[in-house]
Structure formats: C-alpha cells, structure tokens
Design brief:
233 residues; alpha+beta; seven-stranded antiparallel sheet; four-stranded antiparallel sheet; 15% helix; globular; disordered N terminus
Amino acid sequence: MTTRRPLLSLIVVAVAALTLASVAQAASPRNPQVPFCTASLQTYMNGIGETINVATDQIDAQVWKTTVSGNATFTVMLEQAGNAALNTIGVYNGDDAAPVLFQVFPGAATQGWYATLSFVGTTLTVSLFDNSSAYQGQTTYSGVNKSKFGFYLQGPGGTFYSQDFRNAGAKAQILTYAGTGDNFGSWWQCFEDLPYAYPDCLTDFDDTVLFIESVNPTPALTQTWGGLKALYR
C-alpha cells in the first residue's frame, strides 16, 4: 500500500524549503574571505559550541531586513575591547549617502545586555535591558528602513560600517557568521573597533560580538561611493 502525505504537510515542507533556500541565497560567502588574527574569536566560537571556522565561514551580509514579524533581538555576547566603555553600536539606512546613526547599545552596555527592536512602518522602537534583564529605557526613531539597514560601531577608533565601501580603503570592519546547530537561522556580528590593519594582530574582530535574531541578510550588491551618490542626482 502506498502512503500518501497530506497535502498540507507537502505545502508546509515546500514553503520551508523555499524559505531556507531564499535565506541561503541571500547569505552567500564573502569572496574573498577577510584575513585576520583569528585565534581569539575562534576560541570563543568553539567555547559556545558553534561549528564555525571564523577564517573561512564569513558571510557577505552587509545590509539586513527584518522578518515578517517586524521584531528583532540583539544580544551583546562578548565585549573585550579597550574602548568598550566608549563604543556605541546601532543601525543606519543602507541606501543613505550620509546615514543618520540610530543607536541601539550605549557605551555602558556590557556582556549580556540585549535590545528588542520593533519596526512599524519606518518607525523603530528600541527597548534596552541589562544583563539581569532590568529595563534600561526605550528610544523611538523615525525614518528607518526595515528592509535595508546596516550596522555601525562608533568609538575612539572611528565610525565603522557593515557596508565595506563606507570604511577607509573599503575594508571590512564587521564580519558576519551564520549560526549553527541550535542557533541555525540566527547570526553573529563581529566588530573590529580599530581601522583594519592585518597582519597587525590588533585586527581580531572580537571587540564586540552580537547575536542577532529575527533578521535576514539582503542580497549582497557591489556598491561604491560614486554609485551611491549617483542615486541622489
């Protein structure tokens, strides 16, 4: 006797497969991979059970969009930079020539702090919590593009963006990795808070590490300052 799978189950499986394929397509590998002093970040990833090779598993995710819920959570998982108390982290509109910075984490944020982000139209509401889940306040921003935003880090070392072309020499300052195992479908953002200068081993991308949930990378497109400015002529 042939057992037929219910039509609903087939539809669910097909939709799930399509969703995963779409995410995988958007999250293509960086080419080339960014060389850096990997030991510290690799040790951290190994210690939390991730099967990530930080030298070869970098994802070319420079701008992001929310999932259908419009909500996201960012958690500070590691912070060990000398400038940690002065570094702020947030998001910006990826299409803007001179982007406004929308702060998510202040310099006071330390390991274990997290923020919930809620997008309604072009309004972003950030609710901030410390490492004991004590509420730290709420900030609302207008004019935020939930379909194409980037990450930034700003501190004594400079202001750095997830879009490489915005950084000096078009160098990467923020690396992305896809979560594995229980973290599949979530992402790691690894920040370098000094100008990229490999083989100087101050370039290690472990100054701040964020775990981000309920967002997806948008398809990577090659962009330059000239190309971006042309959009505004």
